[in-house]
Amino acid sequence: MTKQIQLFNNIAPKAFEDIEDDYFLSNEPIDNPDAIILRSAKLHDMTFAPETKYIGRAGAGTNNIPVERATEAGIVVCNAPGANANGVKELAAMSLVMASRNVLDALKWTDSLKGQDDIAAKIEAGKKNFVGRELRHKKMGVIGLGSIGGRVANMCIDFGMTVYGYDPYVTLRSAWGVDSRVKYTEDLQTIFSECDLVSLHVPYTEENHHMINSDILAYAKDGLILINLARDGLVDLDALEAAIESGRVGTYVVDFPEEKTLNMRNTINIPHLGASTPESQENAARMVINQMTDYLENGNITNS
Ligand code: MLT
């Protein structure tokens, strides 16, 4: 019988063309799907159907899936590690430059000149308010040296920065292709006390809930630029707000806006765009489709 696949979020339809003759694919709810493929839809309240054997997250994080409950129900849960790494790396590049060069405030101000006279003169006079800093020779801390963090660390080496890397799970950093010029450190304090900019690239787990808290922010250099394109629960927002108010954190860039971050000073809110490119979406969809077909057809689990 044709296997039924429940899709959420209309992910990369092109990636499904190869299997559409062999599987019944539906973006509308179906009663008893053999597999579920999703992007950011939240499955916490979902009652799993008896036939469901596989859930594929077309992205890196799995915190929108009740993994333990699914596993207990005998469902294999897979993700697509690295599929969107380039998309997130490029957004990190934008975040570093945007925060260092006051680009957001500058753009808002430039936009406010619409309809006014003497725009050239006003720009000449006003641009002094947006003088920024270059990245070259600054110290960059990368927390998490997996497929995304590793690429960000290497990119920052290319920017001419001194890069410090920290990863609670990685000791053989060469396995991730991280540039040998990245200074590996085993403690977060070093990252915060040394670096001008810090970027988070770890998944969210119970253990690292609020890993960025008042204790660690106490080590930060004044004016730190903190970038979080990873997950919201990593940062204790009350502690962060206090650090922004005291000037210890100069700018926070976050790809998971919520009411609090939208109301926080010196915060650049991005509407979760890290993986929002057709390239990343297609890579991620193809990765989980391959895993799914291999599991449903051959019983192989190949989450890499
Ligand atoms: C991820 O976990 O990789 C992202 O949340 C993916 C996405 O935005 O779809």
TrEMBL record:
GO molecular function, one example?
phosphoglycerate dehydrogenase activity
The family this protein is said to belong to = Belongs to the D-isomer specific 2-hydroxyacid dehydrogenase family.
Record's keyword annotation contains Oxidoreductase: yes
The answer to keyword ATP-binding applying to this record is no
Q: What are the protein's UniProt keywords?
A: NAD, Oxidoreductase
| Full-length numbering of the shown residues | 1 to 304 of 391
Tell me the function of this protein.
Answer: Catalyzes the reversible oxidation of 3-phospho-D-glycerate to 3-phosphonooxypyruvate, the first step of the phosphorylated L-serine biosynthesis pathway. Also catalyzes the reversible oxidation of 2-hydroxyglutarate to 2-oxoglutarate.
Q: Which domain of life is it from?
A: Bacteria
Question: Which reaction equation describes what this protein catalyses?
Answer: (2R)-3-phosphoglycerate + NAD(+) = 3-phosphooxypyruvate + NADH + H(+); (R)-2-hydroxyglutarate + NAD(+) = 2-oxoglutarate + NADH + H(+)
EC no.?
A: 1.1.1.399, 1.1.1.95
The identity of this protein, by name, is D-3-phosphoglycerate dehydrogenase
- Which organism is this protein's natural source? Suicoccus acidiformans
Its pathway? Answer: Amino-acid biosynthesis; L-serine biosynthesis; L-serine from 3-phospho-D-glycerate: step 1/3
